[in-house]
Amino acid sequence: MLPSASKATPGRPWVLVDTEKLVLTVYAADGQVIARFPEISIGSGGTAREHLHGDDTTPLGIFHVGWIDRHSRFRTFFGLDYPTAHAALRAYADGTITAAQCRAITAAARLHRIPPQNTPLGGQIGIHGVGGGLPWVQGNFNWTDGCVALTNREIGQLAKWVHVGTKVVIR
Fold first, then answer.
1. Phi, psi of 19 (to 5 degrees)
2. How far is the C-alpha of 88 from the C-alpha of 68, rounded, in Å?
3. How many folded domains does the chain comprise?
4. Does any domain span residue 153?
């Protein structure tokens, strides 16, 4: 079972992912830019209001880091609390997920826990490095299955500011 996701901590840095400019920016609580990482990669399917399992899109919205895997095949993986309650409600309304799946996702959000990662909305969306992959691909192609990717060096730098609960805005 995955650990609990916590709400963002006031006064802590937060992350903005600009999917049009392909830039990840870390902001201090007062709005000052702490770090900027240009030439990120996103999902090979582009962006979507809701990511669906297997569509390779990066979901747009406001998320929080729900868990951190420092031994990921992508070096470090900052897992996001996707799918959100809003995504679940929209997906239930359009028939993409069942009522039980919607209840499970919304309950996880209400309890600040990691939502189910195995519904038609998919899961395992996060920010990560290249790991042992081909470094030249990073920044030259949108190659992920829906995540946001940086170089291995950059993911190490980002780790200074990102913790469980860090707010991540993907637009």
1. -80, -15
2. 23
3. 1
4. yes
